[in-house]
């Protein structure tokens, strides 16, 4: 069974504590910037392990020292608590 999609009110409440994350195209969105490609890639490698552990995978894009991430739970048709949990972990690792 998939996670329930967050209501607009619940999502807004969660965003208060998610530094730098916004909603773009109905997805949680953030761009991280690092001093180098190696650090950006290391961040992605660490998050790949998180993704496997919680069974939730991002849409992401890397160019040199930037990592752009979009999160949504496709099975639920929107943003869920799994996306919020993943975003919090990304902020911790950055």
UniProtKB/TrEMBL annotation:
Q: Which residues form the signal peptide?
A: none
Question: E.C. number, please?
Answer: 4.2.1.96
Please tell me whether the keyword Lyase is annotated for this protein: yes
Q: Which GO terms describe its biological process?
A: tetrahydrobiopterin biosynthetic process
- Family in the record: Belongs to the pterin-4-alpha-carbinolamine dehydratase family.
Name the InterPro entries for this protein: PCD_sf, Pterin_deHydtase
MF terms in GO:
4-alpha-hydroxytetrahydrobiopterin dehydratase activity
Annotated protein name in UniProt: Putative pterin-4-alpha-carbinolamine dehydratase
Supply the source organism for this entry.
Phormidesmis priestleyi ULC007
